[in-house]
Fold this protein.
Amino acid sequence: MKSRRQRKKLGQAGWKISEVERLTGLSRRDIQRVCYQGEGGIGLLSPKETKWGYRVYSAQDLKVLYTVSLLRERGRTLPQVEREFERVHSDVDAILDEQIDLLREEIEKSVSRYHKALALGRAKDRDGLKRLFRHIVAFELTFAGDDGPDSALDLPEMELLVELMYGPGSYEGIRGLL
């Protein structure tokens, strides 16, 4: 077992591949292929080596590898990932921003479907619908970004919820009052 001092020095130098696997979700083989510049590799990174012979990865390396992981989750092959980095001239921040936007859209759709399912599940419980309404408004106030809806009533799930609470056509009536 390594001494505490050796572990501390290694931690200051960067992350070992086993830690990178855990943090990024990429397999060891994919991490190696991202770094390897020969046939079968795409050569995006060159991790540094410590005096103990470990390859260590920096925070910037983690950013690149996590971005690769996100692209792989979307079904991209490593050659396609390489072309994506070439497309943006290796600007990992641009690719990561695109992936963040896609993830945000997926989250919004999932949250909307979740809220609709909850509303339908509580359709006969008016108090439950009111609590859900308050929950959605609080959630929106807490997590909405600057580009979010102007009002919680603009959320796609709110039409169903309001109609369940007050009856068919009520959503348009309430929207007309605003």
User: Anything to note?
Assistant: The first helix runs from residue 4 to 13. The first strand starts at residue 48 and ends at 49. Residues 154 and 177 are 14 Å apart (CA to CA). The chain has nine helices and two strands.
